[in-house]
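Section 5: illustrative case.
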């Protein structure tokens, strides 16, 4: 934990920026949110409340994984 005078300085803001960047990168790299939340020292709900809109780029990989697994069963009432 940074002392208040360091946290409020440009150096303190930079440390927080690096933390945000790293957490976003971990989520975008497909690391499970449970693990990222553990590393961040928070809960999954808190992590995703702040970072859900930052997660990007996983859809193509998820589609490939679903296709390789044979897709998902049909959703009742869909179509």
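Designed sequence:
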């Amino acid at each position: 934990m940074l002392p208040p005078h360091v946290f409020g300085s440009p150096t303190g803001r930079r440390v927080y920026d690096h933390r945000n960047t790293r957490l976003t990168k971990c989520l975008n790299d497909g690391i499970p949110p449970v693990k990222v939340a553990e590393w961040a020292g928070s809960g999954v709900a808190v992590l995703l409340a702040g970072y859900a809109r930052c997660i990007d780029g996983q859809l193509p990989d998820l589609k490939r994984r679903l296709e390789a697994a044979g897709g998902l069963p049909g959703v009742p009432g869909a179509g």
